[in-house]
Design a protein that fits this description.
Layout (H helix, E strand, L loop, with lengths): L1 H24 L7 H22 E2 L2 E2 L3 H19 L9 H17 L12 H35 L13 H29 L9 H24 L3 H29 L4
Antiparallel strand pairs: 1-2
Amino acid sequence: MAGLYASAAILLYLTAAALQCREVLQQRDKLLPAAAWTALLAMLCHGMSLTQTAMLGEGYSLGFFQASSLIFLLVGIATLLSLKRRPLQNLLVILLPLAALTVALAAITPTTRTKATDFDIGLLMHIVISALAYAVLTIAALQALALALLDSRLKHHRTTGLVRMLPPLQLMETMLFELIWLGVILLTFSIGSGFLFLEDMFEQRLAHKTILTVAAWVTFSTLLWGRHIRGWRSKTAVRWTLGGFIVLMLGFFGSKFVLELVLGQV
């Protein structure tokens, strides 16, 4: 059944992305209802597929590809929920195909699973909060790239094409910092829950992840301080956001990649 759900999710994700892409190409800045409903169905199938590949009888298993799939599922959900307040619909053109890719990789690479972990509410809470933090900050990184594109085009007086589909520069900046604030709050809870529910956050397998996660938290927090105290904007905000995101992803995906896919440890 996992393969059936995965296939359905991939097909629905790509269909939703194609529908929304057509809206972008026709320079309409609204979320197409058909694309939204198709994406929701895709996420439902995505969740069912992930449940069957990551949940085992004696516990749960989140290897490199399963964790990637979970994060992109949460990215998609967070983006759709955010559409009630902010115009993020054009990000779906990028996010939905990436989500489809993670579904496919999680479905066809079961050998990269980690050892099953007994059900533990505290540990499960830490995993969910961490995934939410990564999801929100992933959206923030994409928003930063869109902001950089808009800022560059405006400075060169190129206001045609994709630029017309983006919100005003000031709104883009506001949206970016809203996402970073939420991401930092979630990351704070993630680090705190790690110290509470993990036996040792600085043991050999977790030390680099902990250090890089804290470094990312410091980077994003410094950006928020700079915004509040010094009024950092545009290019500065983009650089700090992408820098923090790279450090965060190196801490999580880099460590899992090396341990599971290079060293073959579980």
